[in-house]
Design goal:
The protein is of the alpha+beta class. The chain has four helices and eight strands; from the N terminus they run ββββββαββααα. Strands 1, 2, 3, 4, 5, 6, 7 and 8 form an eight-stranded antiparallel β-sheet that branches. The longest helix is centred in the middle third of the chain and has 12 residues. The C terminus is likely disordered.
Length: 222
């Protein structure tokens, strides 16, 4: 299994030293809920790959956690009803973009369906790197296949204000920094157990990590 983190658009990981996830800053996700909608954005950086589980906590609430990516992962797999053990996570991508609706930098929590279409544009000699043009991401009706389609718009240079916003989002010293690589890191088994309410079922319930309790993402599958 490939390691999570930022990827170049030419990386084969777009086809088809573990640390705790301690970042707690709220990520400005682009809300892509609902169907038959279109969002126009400009890709603002490289995709950041991570592995996660959509599961439920002890109270039955939907919860998203990053896989530990090893045999300690306690998330129950729906198929086997046993622990994931680092084998059952879904690959996802955080993609920073400029939201043309309000001009701010946001993050798309994307599946391979969206990423694969952007990579095809990247390889197309008429379009090239996705930072050179806006794209329209459309979401079709429920059950559509593909659910998401990506279309490019005309080639045009980014304005200076947008360039500055992107630079700020990549600067760890700026208040608008978006720490995607921190968010993509594997979580510890102890942190996952705490989030899911499983810690009391184990002999060791001491937690020393500061993993996120809340994940502001879309639950839509792609």
């Amino acid at each position: 299994m490939a390691q999570p983190g930022k990827l170049d658009w030419d990386s084969p990981e777009l086809d088809g030293g573990k640390k705790d996830q301690t970042e707690t800053k709220k990520i400005p996700f682009l809300n892509m809920k609902g169907n038959n909608k279109t969002w126009r954005v400009r890709v603002a950086g490289s995709p950041v790959m991570y592995y996660c589980h959509w599961t439920t906590d002890k109270q039955g609430n939907k919860t998203k956690v990053n896989c530990t990516m090893d045999e300690t992962c306690p998330v129950p797999e729906e198929r086997t009803k046993g622990p994931c053990k680092g084998l059952g996570a879904q690959r996802r991508f955080y993609l920073p973009v400029v939201d043309r609706a309000d001009g701010t930098v946001k993050v798309i929590d994307a599946g391979i369906q969206i990423i694969d279409q952007i990579k095809k544009l990247h390889k197309d000699e008429d379009w090239g790197h996705p930072s050179k043009y806006d794209i329209k991401v459309s979401k079709g009706p429920q059950g559509a296949n593909p659910l998401y389609t990506v279309l490019p718009t005309k080639l045009e240079e980014l304005d200076d204000d947008s360039k500055q916003l992107i630079a700020d989002s990549e600067n760890p010293e700026h208040e608008n920094y978006i720490p995607l690589e921190e968010r993509a890191k594997p979580q510890t088994a102890e942190g996952i157990k705490r989030i899911l309410g499983l810690e009391e079922e184990t002999k060791s319930s001491t937690v020393t990590t500061d993993d996120d309790d809340e994940f502001d993402v879309s639950w839509d599958e792609d």
